[in-house]
C-alpha cells in the first residue's frame, strides 16, 4: 500500500512522458543554484502558495537534465500512510535503496513529522550523496521542530504569493491594469490567479481559507476557539495598515492580551499576516513601539470581510494598494535581505514604509493617484538626508 501511494505521488517513475503542469517562478533559478552545494534546502510559506509546484519544477528540470526517475523521491506528508517510511533513519534509507547513485529527496509538509529536525539532521550527517529539499506551511511548527537541529545544515527560502509580474504570467492574457485590480480584490495565490471567472476565484479563496482553518489551526495547532480567532481576523481586516493596539483589541473582543498575542503569533507563523515595526534612530519624537499589521494576501483579507467590490468602488482602496506594495516588496525579496518598517512621529507625521536593504535606506509613500511628495518627506529629510524617497501610485503599475 505504501509503495502504491508513493508511486501515485511520483508518476514520472511509471510514466516517462509525464507532463508537469506547473508554471515557472522567479525563485526557481535561485533554488537550482543550490543543487550543487551540500546544504538541505527549506521552502517555507502558506498553504497553496506554490511550494509543491516549485518542488515539481525542480524535479522536472532534474529529469530534463538526464537524472533517472529512480534517483528522485517525492513525499507529501499530508498523507499519513507515508509516515511509516520516516519512522527512523534506517527504514528511510532502506526505502531509498542501497545503490550509491546520487539521490534527490523532496519532502512536502515536513512539519507533519513528530521530530523532523532530528530526522533531517541524522540523514544529513550520514553524508550519503543525498540532496534534500523540504517544505513547510507553519513557521511555528518548523521553528519548534526543525530549526534548532539544522543550523549550518540547511538554507531556508520563503515562498511568497505571486509578484505582480508573475501574476501577469499566470493570469494572462491580462492587462497591467486588470492584473492590479484582480490582485487588490482576489489576491495573488497561484490557484486564484489561474482562474478567469470571478466566482471561481472566490471559491478558491474559500477553499484555501477553510483548508487553513482545518489543517493548520484545528488539526495541528489544536486551536479550541476558532470563532474567537475568526472575530479577531475580521477586526484586523478592517484595521489593515493601522497601528496595532493590543489593549484596544483586548477590550473590544473581550479577550485577554496574552490570548491576542498568541493569535497574532499564529497568524504570522502561518503566513497570513505580518507585523511591521517603527523605524527609529536618533529623533526624539519618533514612534518606537506600536507596530502596524498587514495581510500577506489581499484576497484572504477580502474573503474574511466578504467584500469583493471593484477597487474604484471601495472606501479602502488606498489601504489595499498600501498592502499590495508591502506584498510586492516581499515577493521580490528572494533572499530576505529587506528589513521593512514604517516611520511615524508622535505628532502623527508618517511614511508608509522604510526599507533597509543591507544598510541602504529608502522611504516609500503609497498613494492611489496623487504623485505629490508628502510633507512628511521634508521632516524625514531633516533627520535622514541620505535616505532615498519615492511616492508609488497605481499609475506606476499600469
What is the compact description of this entry?
The protein is an alpha/beta fold and 398 residues long. It is built from 16 helices and eleven strands.
Descriptive key words:
single chain, 398 residues, alpha/beta, five-stranded parallel β-sheet, four-stranded mixed β-sheet, 11 strands, globular
Report on the structure:
A five-stranded parallel beta sheet has the order 2-3-4-1-5, sandwiched between helices. Strands 8-9-10-11 form a four-stranded mixed beta sheet, with helices on one face. Strands 6-7 form a two-stranded antiparallel sheet. The chain has helices at residues 2-9, 27-32, 51-64, 89-96, 116-125, 139-145, 164-171, 176-186, 190-193, 198-220, 226-238, 246-253, 257-269, 298-305, 317-331, 376-383; strands spanning 40-44, 72-76, 103-108, 130-136, 154-158, 273-276, 292-295, 338-344, 350-357, 360-367, 388-393. It is an alpha/beta fold and 398 residues long. The longest helix has 23 residues, at 198-220. The model has no long low-confidence stretch (mean pLDDT 90). The chain is globular and about 70 Å long. The N and C termini lie far apart (53 Å). Helices cover 41% and strands 16% of the residues.
Give me the secondary-structure topology.
Elements: H1 2-9, H2 27-32, E1 40-44, H3 51-64, E2 72-76, H4 89-96, E3 103-108, H5 116-125, E4 130-136, H6 139-145, E5 154-158, H7 164-171, H8 176-186, H9 190-193, H10 198-220, H11 226-238, H12 246-253, H13 257-269, E6 273-276, E7 292-295, H14 298-305, H15 317-331, E8 338-344, E9 350-357, E10 360-367, H16 376-383, E11 388-393
Parallel strand pairs: 1-4, 1-5, 2-3, 3-4, 10-11
Antiparallel strand pairs: 6-7, 8-9, 9-10
Helix pairs in contact: 7-8, 8-14, 11-14
Amino acid at each position: 500500500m505504501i509503495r502504491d501511494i508513493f508511486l501515485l505521488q511520483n508518476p514520472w517513475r511509471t510514466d516517462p512522458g509525464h507532463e508537469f503542469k506547473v508554471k515557472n517562478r522567479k525563485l526557481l533559478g535561485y533554488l537550482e543554484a543550490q543543487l550543487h552545494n551540500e546544504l538541505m534546502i527549506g521552502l517555507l510559506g502558506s498553504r497553496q502558495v506554490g511550494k509543491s509546484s516549485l518542488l515539481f519544477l525542480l524535479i522536472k528540470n532534474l529529469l530534463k537534465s538526464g537524472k533517472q526517475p529512480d534517483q528522485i523521491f517525492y513525499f507529501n506528508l499530508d498523507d499519513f500512510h507515508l509516515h511509516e517510511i520516516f519512522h527512523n533513519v534506517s527504514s528511510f534509507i532502506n526505502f531509498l535503496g542501497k545503490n550509491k547513485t546520487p539521490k534527490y529527496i523532496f519532502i512536502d509538509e515536513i512539519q507533519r513529522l513528530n521530530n523532523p529536525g532530528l530526522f533531517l539532521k541524522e540523514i544529513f550527517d550520514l553524508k550519503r550523496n543525498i540532496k534534500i529539499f523540504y517544505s513547510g506551511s507553519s513557521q511555528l511548527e518548523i521553528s519548534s521542530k526543525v530549526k534548532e537541529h539544522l543550523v549550518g545544515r540547511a538554507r531556508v527560502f520563503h515562498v511568497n504569493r505571486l509578484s505582480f509580474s508573475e501574476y501577469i504570467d499566470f493570469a494572462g492574457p491580462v492587462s497591467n491594469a486588470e492584473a492590479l485590480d484582480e490582485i487588490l480584490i482576489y489576491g495573488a495565490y497561484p490557484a486564484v490567479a489561474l482562474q478567469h471567472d470571478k466566482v471561481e476565484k472566490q471559491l478558491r479563496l474559500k477553499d484555501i481559507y477553510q483548508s487553513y482553518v482545518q489543517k493548520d489551526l484545528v488539526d495541528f495547532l489544536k486551536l479550541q476557539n476558532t470563532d474567537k480567532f475568526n472575530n479577531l481576523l475580521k477586526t484586523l481586516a478592517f484595521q489593515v495598515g493601522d497601528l496595532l493596539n493590543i489593549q484596544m483589541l483586548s477590550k473590544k473582543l473581550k479577550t485577554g492580551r496574552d490570548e491576542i498575542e498568541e493569535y497574532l503569533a499564529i497568524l504570522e507563523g502561518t503566513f497570513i499576516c505580518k507585523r511591521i515595526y517603527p523605524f527609529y534612530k536618533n529623533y526624539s519624537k519618533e514612534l518606537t513601539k506600536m507596530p502596524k499589521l498587514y495581510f500577506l494576501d489581499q484576497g484572504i483579507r477580502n474573503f474574511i470581510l466578504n467584500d469583493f467590490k471593484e477597487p474604484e468602488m471601495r472606501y479602502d482602496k488606498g489601504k489595499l494598494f498600501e498592502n499590495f506594495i508591502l506584498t510586492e516588496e516581499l515577493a521580490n525579496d528572494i533572499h530576505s535581505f529587506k528589513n521593512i518598517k514604517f516611520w511615524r512621529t508622535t505628532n502623527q507625521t508618517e511614511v508608509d514604509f522604510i526599507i533597509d536593504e543591507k544598510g541602504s535606506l529608502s522611504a516609500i509613500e503609497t498613494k492611489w493617484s496623487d504623485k505629490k511628495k508628502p510633507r512628511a518627506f521634508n521632516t524625514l529629510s531633516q533627520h535622514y538626508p541620505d535616505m532615498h524617497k519615492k511616492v508609488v501610485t497605481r499609475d506606476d503599475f499600469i
